[in-house]
Every structure is written in structure tokens, then in C-alpha cells.
Amino acid sequence: MxxxxxxxxxxxxxxxxxxxxxxxxxxxxxxxxxxxxxxTLRKVFTPGIISPTTSFGNITGTIATxxxxxxxxxxxxxxAGNFISVSxxxxxxxxxxxxxxxxxxxxxxxxATGLYFGWGGPGIVNNVLGNYLSNPIFxxxxxxxxxxxxxLTVGHSYFVGVSYLSATRINWVVRDLTTGQIFTETDTTSVxxxxxxGAYYFGGYTSxxxxxxxxxxxxxxxxxxxxxxxxxxxxxxxxxxxxxxPPTQRALLASGLKVPPSGNIWNLTGNLGGASQYG
Length: 279
Prior knowledge:
By secondary structure, this protein is mainly beta. It has one domain (28-278): Jelly Rolls, CATH 2.60.120.200. The chain has helices spanning 230-238, 249-255, and strands at residues 29-35, 41-45, 55-56, 58-60, 65-66, 73-74, 83-87, 99-108, 114-121, 124-132, 135-141, 144-147, 157-165, 169-176, 182-188, 199-202, 215-224, 265-268, 275-278. The strands form 3 sheets. A 10-stranded mixed beta sheet has the order 3-2-1-17-8-13-14-15-18-19, covered by helices on one side. It has a 7-stranded antiparallel beta sheet with strand order 4-7-16-9-10-11-12, with no helix packed on it. Strands 5-6 form a two-stranded antiparallel sheet. A hairpin with a 2-residue loop joins strand 11 and strand 12 (144-147). The two termini are 34 Å apart.
């Protein structure tokens, strides 16, 4: 008997997380993880720079885990200094990589500025995904941020994929997992990537940086030296959780028998202004 799958191709599939090395976002992966129990992260994949444990990370402050429609999540906190840190740089400081690709599944909880995950240390904010008011942001350091024109709605769940080519271009894809809509944006940028040093931070940021998290985080990925085109990000957004929960051959067959819900795609290009709908 074929497995019973959710009709919605971006619904949380349940079961054990995994890693799909054939996925476009897999190249250059530094860490891929999903929320675990008791305020922990469950490692899906790292390239040997973090000890292979079921749960990993050092908790600072109070990090809560709860169940949600998108799976277990690290609960949002407005309290600065509540976060999970993971020492993940055995090679020492890495110069600013030429490209960075981030992916996340989360529920947006509030419009205060929040930082969800990235690299850093006390007083350091390097190459981080977060939000400024209701807009996703990519922060290369405490002085430079790139804000998308895409607007997040409090209470909605999202997949956000961001691919950044240092001092050149940044591609954004946001899929509203509540409505099915996909939003895309491409911007030029002169902002330069920063060195990867210190540790990963998840679910908030250091007290020195002064920011909590405005998202219930379910899954994250962080890749370097792997710039994805807008089309590749859109393809990821068609079934975003497949990166963290790869479908089996039988599941793929079953999913081919189902008709996925349609979702409009909106394109916002910051350099040109306006928005156009396609798809």
C-alpha cells in the first residue's frame, strides 16, 4: 500500500528528517537542522565540523520547543540573549565567502526586529537571516543589512530562501505556507560578505547584539559557495520541506497521484519598483 501523504505539497510530512545531497541547496552545506525536543536542534547534516550527535547546541537563556502545524519549532522570544549556539568552525575563521544560501521554515510571530540564525559571537552579527519590521532581512554585519520588499504576515508560516552573491546580487523567494503564494525578488547590492567565525546562532542572537527572534523556527539550512538562481529558489519553494524531509521513491509515486494546490507567484524587483504577478 502506498503511504498516505498530505494533499498540500508544503505541509509538514512528519517522520524522521534526512538529507538529500542531490538538492540544489545541498552543495556547500555548512549545517542543516530541524527543531528537536527540550529546546534543542536535531542535526540533519554537517560536513564533519560538528560532532555527530542527535541533538546539539549550547542553550543560553530560555529556549522552548513546542509542537506546531509545521512540526516542532524553537519558539520565538523577544528576549535578547536567548539562543542556541553551536561551535561549528574547526577550520578557524573563513574569509567572507563569495556566496551564501540560507533556507528556513518558520512561523512569523511579530514585527519587532528579530534575528533568526547565522554566524557570530559576542557583539558580532555576520551573515544572518532575520526580519526588520515585517520584511525579511539578510544582515552581513552590524552595519549592513539588505531588506526585502516582501511583507510577512504575523501568524502565517513561511518558507524563505535567500541566495546572496557578495557585492553583486541577492535573490529572495518567500512562500506563504498558509496561502500558498510565492513571492520573489532580485536586488543588486554592494554589500560585502563577512568572515564566518565563532559559532552558529539559532532562535535569537547574543545579548550584545540586542535582538531576540520573531519566528518559531522549524528548519534551517546554511550553505556557502553555492549561489542559487531565482528559478532554483522557486523550485525549492514548490516543495520546501523536501530538503529536510526527502521523499522516498514510493512517496514520490504517491505524490504524483495528487493534485497540489495552486499558488500565485508575485515578483518584486527592488531596482525596478512595482510588482508583477505570474504563474
